[in-house]
Design goal:
The chain is of the alpha/beta class. The protein has three domains: 10-170 and 240-307, 3-Layer(aba) Sandwich (Rossmann fold), CATH 3.40.50.150; 171-233; 319-399. The protein is 39% helix and 15% strand. The protein has helices at residues 10-19, 41-49, 73-81, 94-107, 109-112, 146-154, 174-185, 192-204, 210-219, 226-233, 243-252, 274-281, 285-295, 319-324, 353-363, 380-392; strands spanning 63-67, 86-91, 114-119, 131-137, 157-168, 256-260, 301-307, 326-329, 340-342, 348-350, 396-399.
């Protein structure tokens, strides 16, 4: 179903992606490689709120919108990481959707979830909501009016539901913006000639040139596929943000900031130590983020969650809350069953013997078994201690038991 363009940039952006279907990830038979926890709804809610979303009946499947799905990489993961969900994937480019359909067919995504892939604008989805989760990665910054796009997505969210966004950041795109302007000034275009001449630029600039060095050291591998190079350097419509403008953008749609989906990037401990770190950690969270933004000019994007209404953070400080909780193993792990894992961020993680035993007991018990009633010959204090360790490692995802308040 094709609808008339609702944003001034839609026709030119659609044509661009028909020429360069993005992202340029290769098609393959079988499930996508690894995982991305941001596309697993349970993991995303747990990261944002400390707890799993409210339980739903089998008659009420999870509803997910992939707004600007491109060649279907995100749709593929969403289907495999949220089996049984109803997923609507939309994009303005018919060419990219041909690839998305083939990707999902070959990967088995269409057997894992109820997937609709449609040629539609995210601005014209009235009546399709509400959704439990919306994913829109690298999309809104290509609208002529990103605020209209954000408001359209906000209107499709259920109360308390999450929206995951990825938007360009000013600082880390300093060199990219200059390259884009140079190519535009020389009139290379946004087609095959632009691609050829854009690649030629990086071979002809002096070896010590900052733009060439930045591309070769940071982006050359990511831009190996022609579609990825074109998306970075030839795109006809792009907006980027700093933190101040980003927060104003969020407020424009009456949404609440629910946290970064790459929080480690915004931790000043990544950059500072000693007295300077102590001074940084004494600042309020947003001031810490602005400090990191100033200290790390390589940050090229923002990835974050928004919510319709402030999220209720569940803390697990009380043993009684942990013992009453229901739990499940994070599906975004590599190496289970085993103690040597890759965690949800693909980092090495060695489980303790006790942590491994608790997860085994959890998986061998009925799904409605509170942690305190798992068949473990341990004291309740030990169960709570091990569960807390696993929860902090994001290996164990928890849902509050009866009577537990956030």
């Amino acid at each position: 179903m094709t609808q008339a363009p609702a944003d001034a940039a839609t026709p030119v952006v659609s044509d661009f992606y028909d020429r360069f279907p993005y992202p340029g990830d290769p098609l393959q038979d079988g499930p996508p490689p690894g995982y991305n926890w941001r596309w697993c709804v349970d993991a995303a809610y747990s990261a944002s709120t400390g707890a799993l979303p409210a339980a739903r009946s089998s008659a009420e499947p999870l509803r997910i919108l992939d707004a600007g799905c491109g060649t279907g990489v995100s749709t593929d993961y969403l289907a495999h990481l949220n089996p049984g969900a109803e997923i609507l994937a939309v994009d303005i480019s018919p060419g990219t959707l041909e690839v998305a359909r083939e990707r999902c067919r070959r990967s088995g995504a269409l057997d894992r979830a109820q997937v609709r892939i449609e040629n539609r604008s995210l601005l014209e989805l009235a009546g399709e909501g509400p959704f439990d989760y919306i994913n829109s990665v690298g999309v809104l910054h290509h609208l002529r009016q990103p605020e209209a796009g954000l408001k359209a997505l906000a209107a499709l969210l259920k109360p308390g539901a999450l929206l995951h966004l990825f938007l360009y950041a000013d600082g880390g795109r300093w060199e990219i913006h200059r390259t884009q302007r140079a190519l535009t000034a020389m009139g290379v275009g946004t087609g095959a000639d632009g691609l050829r001449l854009g690649r030629q630029l990086f071979t002809e600039l002096p070896e010590h040139n900052r733009l060439r060095r930045h591309h070769e050291q940071r982006w050359a591998i990511d831009c190996a596929a022609d579609a990825n190079f074109a998306d970075m350097y030839l795109h006809p419509q792009e907006t980027s943000y700093n933190l101040e403008r980003l927060m104003a953008f969020v407020a424009s749609a009456d949404l609440d900031f629910a946290g970064f989906s790459n929080p480690e990037v915004w931790d000043p401990a990544r950059l500072l130590k000693g007295e300077l770190l102590e001074r940084a950690q004494a600042l309020p969270p947003e001031a810490q983020w602005r400090l990191v933004e100033d200290l790390d000019p390589d940050i090229s994007h923002f990835e974050f969650f928004l919510s319709k209404g402030p999220v209720q953070k569940q803390r697990w400080d009380e043993d009684s809350d942990l013992l009453a909780a229901l739990g499940c193993r994070n599906p975004c792990l590599w190496g289970w069953p085993g103690r040597a894992l890759l965690d949800s961020d693909m980092a090495p993680l060695d489980l303790s013997a006790e942590g491994f035993s608790l997860l085994q007991a959890l998986e061998q018990s009925p799904a409605d078994t509170p942690l305190g009633q798992l068949p473990l010959d341990w004291s309740t204090a030990q169960i709570a201690s091990v569960a807390r360790e696993l929860q902090l490692q994001r290996v164990l995802l928890l849902r509050s038991g009866p009577g537990v308040s956030a």
